[in-house]
Write a structure and sequence with these properties.
The complex is a heterodimer of chains A (about 300) and B (about 325). With about 300 residues, chain A is mostly helical. Chain A contains 12 helices and 2 strands. The two termini of chain B are about 35 Å apart. The chains are: A mainly alpha (about 300), B mainly alpha (about 325). At the A-B interface, α4, α9 and α11 of A face α5, α11 and α13 of B.
């Protein structure tokens, strides 16, 4: 391996991290505000992929625009799901089994709808951009991956802005920090939860559309990404957007560079193994680990 | 009071009666298809009872039972290939499953509630990927099992029935022992349980091992019958889901709930799928949603409700209910 190869790998890891971060923030904010481990996230990712696919096939809408269109559509969808199912769950300040099973059941339903509507053949979105690259001397970057990366980073920046500077973002942060105190000072937890679920679903749909441009998909599409999203949000300490971004970067680096040591057949096991290791070694994520260090100092 | 005694006597007699009927049924000229259905249902029910020991009684929800089922299936396959008797092979399956449960439990039981559940998803997927790539198991193309002698369906059937009976007895012994009480304490509040002298960590490891042994043997019995196994089948995430769904459908935390769930699931999985092949995932999904939102005690809770409405004087206090049925609420405190 030459230095150029390393640089290429590093760049592709960074580009991958962008999509991974966009894919896991939805889950992060839903977990943070409601303490729901949203297994239906995989279903939303899958629907997002097919959303972009349908728009592309029938209306010839560019998948990037399709991804942006997915945001409002999936926001409304998420609000509806919250209204229909999620709000009936017993409230709790730790994740409950009933929420896990409920979202899991909903995922099965979404997956089955996917099989009924689209069948179990793999689909993919192929545009002229899919194979084009941008070259800087020996370093070549896939145009598509770069565009997807930029779209993901912009969306994350917007989300971070909402999180930090809007009234809604402030109530989200308040609920994450202390749900009881937040309600005492007048945060409407039901309304915030509803909007958060909508926002999280919107991001899942958006990320699903982005992923559809990079990978082929079928109705079981979201599963491997769901587990990756878990690894990422656990790495990121479960409740912060910046944490999710850092987690995404770590996972992308590990996955990309492990190609050099782990046989290709075993590749899918890496994220799963990492999930278990991370849960055990640093349950509070990287941030938690750093905090612990600082407390010692 | 008299009727309650009668009801209690009934709950003691009924299982034995059911066992007797199941043992005699093939003699009454059942079609081989019906025997197959009963066999598969019995195998599923065993895994359901196994899962319920860990998930229902100790409150540790695992998405990872396909690991034990698959390891059991492959251990039996490999041991039978080496010329051992199938029954010896089943013991081997149990041993391998117990070992695996220990290796998995050792790190993951440091986690609690949903974190444990999520970690088990990771373990299952990782094990499946590894099994897909190993040479000894034939990789993803599967493994064929050959057994000397003619195929006798009834032998398989009786093995499965005996296995279910053993599983129910093990469950019963666990629930009615001091160990069972400790597990219940862990389910209700792990810290409080530790304060009164229960070691949650080792208790969980023990019950995990018992549950894994039952599931592993069930996997072995299935493998011997199916004669062909591959990782995409026995190690599938779907298998883990099926094993988890049964006790939840039937009524989590009760022995008979797990049995009932296994029976209902077996019939749905084997018969209804033929008529509604496109919606069986949806069926499970909707069932899960309905159960979580409307009747957390599953079919058992539903039955109890009907039973109570008919003869309200019989069901006594909530305390009696607890003794009779075991309490099960899928709520935050019990995670």
């Amino acid at each position: 391996m030459t230095a150029i190869d390393y640089v290429n790998l590093l760049i592709s890891a960074f580009l991958l991290a962008g999509v991974y971060a966009a894919m896991s923030v939805g889950m992060t904010i839903i977990y943070g505000v409601m303490k729901i481990v949203n297994l239906a996230h995989a279903g939303f990712l899958m629907l997002g992929a097919y959303f972009a696919y349908e728009l592309f096939e029938h209306f010839h809408i560019d998948p990037i625009i399709g991804a942006v269109l997915a945001l409002p559509v999936f926001f409304l969808f998420g609000v509806a799901v919250h209204w229909l199912l999620v709000r009936w769950l017993p409230k709790s300040d730790t994740p409950t089994l009933s929420s896990l099973l409920l979202m899991f059941g909903f995922w099965l339903v979404l997956q089955n709808i996917g099989y009924i509507v689209w069948g179990n053949t793999e689909q993919s979105i192929f545009t002229p951009r899919t194979v084009s690259t941008i070259n800087f001397g020996e370093i070549s970057i896939s145009t598509l991956r770069l565009i997807v990366f930029v779209a993901a980073v912009i969306s994350l920046a917007v989300l971070q802005f909402i999180f930090a500077h809007s009234w809604f973002g402030r109530s989200m942060r308040a609920l994450i920090q202390n749900p009881y105190a937040a309600q005492i000072v007048g945060v409407d937890d039901q309304r915030t939860a509803r909007l958060t679920f909508g926002l999280g679903t919107a991001f899942a749909g958006f990320a699903g559309s982005l992923l559809a441009m990079l990978y082929s998909f079928d109705p079981d599409f979201g599963r491997s990404f769901l587990l990756r999203a878990f690894v990422i949000i656990v790495l990121g300490g479960l409740e912060s957007i910046t944490g999710a971004a850092i987690g995404a970067l770590v996972l992308a680096l590990v996955e990309t560079f492990s190609i050099m040591v782990v046989p290709a057949g075993y590749q899918p096991a890496i994220s799963f193994a990492l999930l278990v290791v991370v849960l055990l070694v640093m349950p509070k994520g990287i941030a938690g680990l750093l905090q612990k260090r600082w407390r010692f100092v | 009071m008299k009727t309650r005694d009668a009801a209690r006597r009934l709950t003691i007699v009924l299982p034995w009666l059911a066992l007797l009927v199941l043992l005699l049924l093939p003699k009454l000229g059942l079609s081989s298809n019906a025997v197959r259905l009963l066999f598969i249902t019995a195998v599923w029910t065993t895994t359901s009872i196994g899962w319920n020991l860990l998930g229902g009684i100790a409150g540790q929800v695992s998405f990872g039972f396909a690991v034990f089922y698959g390891l059991g299936a492959y251990s039996t396959a490999l041991l039978m290939h080496a010329g051992r008797s199938p029954y010896f092979a089943f013991l081997g399956s149990a041993a391998v499953a117990v070992l695996a449960s220990y290796l998995i439990g050792l790190p993951t039981f440091r986690l609690r509630g949903p974190y444990f559940a999520i970690a088990t998803i990771g373990v299952t997927e990782a094990v499946r990927v590894v099994m897909n790539n190993l040479d000894i198991t034939g990789g993803s193309s599967g493994y064929r099992i050959t057994e000397a002698g003619p195929f006798n369906q009834l032998v398989h059937y009786y093995t499965a029935i005996v296995l279910v009976a053993v599983a129910v007895m093990v469950s019963y012994l666990v629930v009615h022992s001091k160990f069972g009480l400790a597990l219940r304490a862990i389910k209700q509040d792990e810290d409080a349980a530790a304060d009164i002298g229960v070691n949650p960590y080792s208790s969980k490891l023990w019950i995990h091992a018992i549950a894994a042994a039952l599931t592993g043997i069930a996997g072995g019995v299935y493998a011997r019958y199916a004669a062909f196994i591959y990782p995409g089948n026995v190690f599938a995430f779907q298998t883990s889901i099926s094993i988890l769904l049964m006790p939840v459908i039937g009524g989590i935390g009760t022995i008979w709930g797990a049995v009932l769930g296994g029976i209902v699931f077996g019939i749905i999985e084997e018969e209804l799928v033929v008529y509604f092949p496109n919606v069986h995932l949806m069926l499970y999904g909707v069932l899960l949603i309905v159960i979580v939102l409307l009747e957390p005690d599953g079919l058992m809770g539903l039955l109890r409700r009907l039973f109570r409405r008919k003869s309200s004087e019989d069901s006594g206090s909530a305390d009696a209910d607890k003794v009779l049925w075991g309490r099960s609420r899928l709520e935050g405190r019990e995670l």
